[in-house]
Amino acid sequence: MRSARTLHQSAGVIGAPFSRGQPRGGVERAPDLIRAAGLLTRLREQGCAVKDYGNVVFEDLEDDEPPGLVKRVRAVGSATRRLSEAVQAVKRDGHTTVMLGGDHSLAIGSIHGHAAAVGHLSVVWVDAHADINTPLSSYTGNIHGQSMSYLLHELQPKMPALPSFSWIRPCVWARDLVYVGLRDVDPAEHYILKLLGVKVFSMREVDQLGVARVMEETCDYLTARGKKPIHLSYDIDAIDPSVTPATGTPVAGGLSYREGVYIAEHLGQTGLLSAVDLVEVNPLRGQTEEAVQSTVSTAVDLLLACFGRRRGGNHPPEYRLPEP
Hints:
It is a single chain. By secondary structure, the protein is of the alpha/beta class. It is built from 10 helices and 8 strands. The chain has helices at residues 30-36, 39-45, 73-92, 107-118, 147-151, 187-196, 203-209, 211-223, 257-269, 289-306; strands spanning 10-16, 49-55, 96-101, 122-126, 177-182, 199-202, 230-235, 273-279. Strand 5, helix 6 (187-196) and strand 6 (199-202) form a beta-alpha-beta unit. The two termini are 37 Å apart.
């Protein structure tokens, strides 16, 4: 493993202020809130070069009647296509992508664009939810709960044709996907995970094994067939709502702050982390200003950990003690 000082010295930040993959407004405010909390400055202070690509501009589609149960499909299809193109541009410039959501439907575009730019990927999906319902198995029709189904090769025979989604091509194999932190999984999702043999570390396994063992096994599993770039898709609701309450679908019994940061630190140290999503921070879902600030500051800390911040301390490589 390479030294932490040589990892991920270049971050390309994309804001994706988009909320149409789920019904609750407010999540579109998160990219600017996370920036305002000092993300870019703090990344630079720990030795990371940063280029901010601004926010992706999304179409405002008024005529978006659902085909069946799937909601706001044209808006999500258009938005994820634009995001895919934006991610490809960041990867062409040689950066590790940081996508600030927005809701988790955006991972469709983020992962698709990443794969289009670099080829085969490994995906680590840290979330309370599996987000792997197909459009036909979803109870709600909200696409933020379906994201992985659009991306997996093995599920394409189960996917209906949808307006504004014809551009998407599957780009991830089930064997290259690992979930961490699951604790609210629909029956159809549980069936899919078992059918495809997806590697899952639910909160039961985190409790049983400890987060260090979980991450060691995650990385051993993903690198057993070769070292592919890692895409980390991090939903803030993976963290327990006592720490990050300002999110749309909180579920009790989640990762502690320490466990959540450890996951990011561990993946950052692999030398393989090539893109990060941080999604589902929703300031309108926090009951107090303190709840919002706790959620946003945790999001910032997770991203800093991906790029070399260590709880044991850091210093610039050029630092020298003052002489008397």
